[in-house]
Records
---
Amino acid sequence: MELTLRFFATYREAVGEKERNRTVDDDATVGDVLADLESQYDGLDGQLLESGAIRPQLSVLKNGRDVTHMAGAETELEDGDVVSVFPPVAGGGRPQL
């Protein structure tokens, strides 16, 4: 099946492009796709999964919906899905008055 993968911020830099189409097995899960990305790109190695689960603070969306509200790394994929990967957001200190 065909997926569209979208990358943001430092992950975009690691992959070298904003968006990539990918063919995956029909029974692929979000975790399978993330593991494949970690093995393919040095800049993503160890950045997406931790003990088979999506790393804390990482945002992974399937068709605009956070997969943590689905089955996490075990979320099943379907032909035509869009998977977006966002790195943790830094900063956010309290504003000064």
---
Amino acid sequence: MTVHHVDWDAIEWKTIRHGVEQKAFSGDGATMALHRLWPDHEPKPHSHVHEQLVYILSGEVDFHVGDEIVRLRGGGLLAVPPNVVHYAVVVGTEPVLNLDVFTPCRPEYAISASQAVGATS
């Protein structure tokens, strides 16, 4: 058996759009995506079939979920149900580090097992 593993530091940041960067990792049933949101990023309201668990590692953000707005700081957690429109807006001047877990997995986000082999720790 080959265990799929990687060190976050070995994964390069991927630019999603101005002010939004991402690193991601998937197993068979879930994807973890680390996002870096800069204060001048362009919020994009969207929805998807995935449940999304949000964990703010640092910074401060207003997370819009449906008709609600929740302010999260480092240590804050939030669950976004499937198919609900949501987006985040950075509060202040510090970038936000946001770790998301998606289920089911999002293979379009994550590096493959073969890519991870070169980035193992």
---
Amino acid sequence: MILEIVTPEMTLFKGEVESVSVPGIDGQFQMLDNHAPVVSLLANGSVKIFGNVQLEESVASLFKQEDGTTNFAITGGVLEMKDNKAIVLAD
């Protein structure tokens, strides 16, 4: 699946991932390939990206990579999952 993480300033990441876990307003949930379409508000927490994530040097300091996951802290936002592409509009 394709994941795109966008902030008001810029697109921080766009690439192929195995799965992504996000902090929804009703709790953390995960999406895999071919997930059903969904739109969700996001809460304060961490976007967890699973897979071989290659970050650009200019944004690598904003992410934390450990134990096979890449984490990005958010204070809120919106997620749209459709046609095997997840877009996180993050605050």
